[in-house]
Amino acid sequence: MSTKHEVHSSGLLTKLGLYTAVLIVISSMIGSGIFKKAAPMSLDLQSGGLILLCWVIAGIVTLIGAATNAEIAGMIAAPGGQYVYFKEMYGKAFAFIYGWSCFSVIQSASIASIAYVFAESVNAVIPLPRLSESMEAYTLLWIFNPLASFGVKMLTIATIIFLTTANYLGVIFGGFISNVFTTLKVLGMLIIIFLGLTLSGGSVENLSPLGQSPTAEYGSSLGLFGAMFAAMLGAFWAYDGWNNIGYLGGEVKNPKRNIPLALFIGVGIVMAVYLLVNFVYLYVMPVNEMMEIANKENTIIAVEVLRKFLGNGGAFFISILIMVSTFGTTNGTILASSRIYFAMAKDKLFFKSAANIHPKFKTPYTSLLMQGMWACLLVMSGTFDQLTDMLIFASFIFYGAGAFGVFVLRRKMKDTHRPYKAMGYPVIPLIFVLFCLTLVVVTIIQNPRDAGIGLALVLSGIPFYVFWNRKK
């Protein structure tokens, strides 16, 4: 049996099959959100039924986004994914701003925050060292606390360095880690669902009220409408990462068939798992108890749910599962994201050396190293929840632009063969575009600070673009 692999025109090895592609989609999505976000969502909504509805809506919107994106992924299979798609849709300036945003906030902050939750779950089992209170209270520029939770941050940085090294050494090794850890975390979640439904002594009545609670007080100026969108930011953080597979277009076998298929299968599986896991949380723990946990610092709802009916043994089991899950997702994000900056550098629109391919391992090693260093710096800023909200806000600007690009390319590339066409065109892609626009506007109204920082990081790429484009 031959172990020889094809080499893509970009110089990268084409060796990831459909099974691995599906697992990369699942791995990139299932990370920290499913274990943490139900608790803050309970504060926003104060209703079991509305929490589940949020997960359903966010899942359907994600599926529509993936189904729309799959048309373009099937047409243009090249390393860099969405960056390459935007270049075809809107030209290189917009594509650059997207790629820069991935580097400055979207993908790098994902790596930093997911690895941070991995370190937090290790800390729940083995307390990590801390500095003195006076040192941890040190502030930089009156905004950042780089020395707070010092042990957790050091382990986070060590995790990013280890996984960057693994992906430096080759895509098969990185893909192998992804397969093993994704399989383990899906099995772990199925165990939570089984134990929760059979041993917990929970009740379906815990899900009530199914609709709006008569005693609810919403912290949003937009009432229930605003509260639903605030809660959905949490759900979308858990669903985020579905489009990472597109970045590996040069390394997936038969990409025009396998990438759209991987999107559908992967997102469908994740949606089903998320709904079942959240049902179990609410089945075991009523909303008012969930809200109490959300008000405590450094708590993870999944850990507390299992602690409730299995004691500390259950809490230990779920902490290990969260370690497995977040370790695998950090790996998947590092593997996929580095290909964006590689593609940009090939276009002479990023640091030139990011286009380097390792002579032995055939990986974009300089791009991996740059990404790893910036993600480690973001870890030191230590703002997990701000990073996730900011990142989702920035992501949805580009998700909306990507879906609108289906309309653009139907005109610009009307004769190009489409192995897959967006379902329900033009209505369903248009619904997705309008949803993205609404989410961005509502976030600006409700959360102007994080939206402002997110926009600033997105727009910070403009002077770099002017510099590299002139040089070119």
The total count of helices amounts to 18
Query: Which whole number gives the mean pLDDT?
Result: 85
What's the story with the biggest beta sheet?
A: 2 strands, antiparallel
Any low-confidence stretches, pLDDT <50, length ≥5? none
The CATH architecture name reads Up-down Bundle
Overall description:
This protein has one domain (14-471): Up-down Bundle (Amino acid/polyamine transporter I), CATH 1.20.1740.10. It has 472 residues and is an all-alpha fold. The protein is built from 18 helices and two strands. The longest helix is centred in the C-terminal third of the chain and has 46 residues, at 301-346. The N and C termini lie far apart (46 Å). The chain has helices at 18-29, 33-36, 38-45, 48-75, 82-90, 92-125, 133-136, 150-168, 171-198, 223-239, 255-284, 287-294, 301-346, 365-381, 384-412, 427-446, 448-459, 461-471, and strands at residues 6-7, 13-14. It is globular, with a radius of gyration of 21 Å. α15 crosses α17 (448-459). Strands 1-2 form a two-stranded antiparallel sheet.
Comma- or semicolon-separated keywords:
1% strand; mainly alpha; Amino acid/polyamine transporter I; two-stranded antiparallel ribbon
